[in-house]
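Good morning,

Attaching, inline, the backbone tokens for the sequence recovery test we're adding to the shared suite. The designed sequence is right after.
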């Protein structure tokens, strides 16, 4: 007679950290999540100097699987600019940014009414200080987003550029002093906006000085954000997911906010 040997039982007990992580993730999923990213395709708005993207189907289900081939500039759609994008002396590409810098407290400064009234308006230090009187001091290590509702012009290239008869673009942006203020006086980690550029379109006679300042000081930014009108001024957290392309001086991202509602 053959006697079966009982298999040993294993009692797996989760550690306190495992339990805490599980609870944290479950709690996060109960909050409101807001997508801050535009869907993009070949006809989507792009910086005028860039070629039109190509989205080509190279295999179909008749071949056994469905595959597309994509050709577009790194700075396309909602995208991240690392320091190397503007400053040759920097050595930080997209892949070099620490993962923990992709999850940050989100501050949203609303200038949508001003931008609607005057597309050439710029966020100033005085505007930021006025915002702080209502919402409190901008916290350190946060992500500061400039809301102008320019993202609502998507997917129109012409509305995004907003050219006049002389070919001059008109869209809002940041004052250089405002950028210096949030980085040097408030010690934030990154910034973002809804337009093609950091700098106001009509104030680029000396180049993109605001964007150069941000990137040359080792920070990153996210451009062409969307849905900032669905996020509160403070209290939310931004999460940024980006492919790890080798030596990429910029790449599209999936950015979203977790909102405490």
């Amino acid at each position: 007679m053959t006697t079966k040997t009982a298999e040993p039982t294993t009692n797996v007990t989760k550690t306190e950290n495992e339990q805490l992580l599980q609870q944290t993730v479950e709690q996060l999923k109960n909050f409101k999540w807001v997508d801050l990213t535009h869907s993009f395709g070949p006809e989507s708005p792009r910086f005028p100097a860039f070629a039109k993207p190509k989205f080509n189907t190279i295999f179909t289900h008749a071949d056994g699987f469905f595959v597309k081939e994509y050709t577009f500039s790194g700075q396309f759609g909602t995208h991240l600019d690392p320091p190397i994008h503007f400053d040759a002396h920097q050595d930080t590409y997209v892949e070099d940014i620490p993962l923990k810098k992709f999850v940050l407290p989100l501050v949203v400064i609303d200038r949508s009414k001003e931008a609607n009234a005057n597309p050439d308006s710029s966020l100033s230090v005085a505007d930021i200080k006025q915002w702080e009187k209502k919402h409190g001091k901008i916290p350190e290590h946060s992500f500061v987003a400039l809301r102008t509702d320019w993202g609502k012009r998507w997917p129109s290239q012409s509305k995004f550029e907003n050219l006049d008869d002389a070919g001059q673009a008109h869209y809002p942006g940041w004052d250089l002093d405002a950028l210096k203020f949030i980085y040097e006086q408030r010690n934030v980690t990154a910034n973002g906006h809804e337009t093609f550029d950091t700098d106001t379109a009509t104030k680029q006679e000396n180049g993109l000085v605001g964007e150069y300042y941000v990137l040359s000081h080792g920070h990153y930014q996210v451009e062409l954000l969307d849905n900032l009108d669905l996020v509160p001024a403070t209290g939310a957290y931004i999460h940024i997911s980006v492919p790890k392309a080798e030596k990429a001086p910029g790449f599209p991202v999936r950015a979203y906010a977790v909102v405490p509602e």
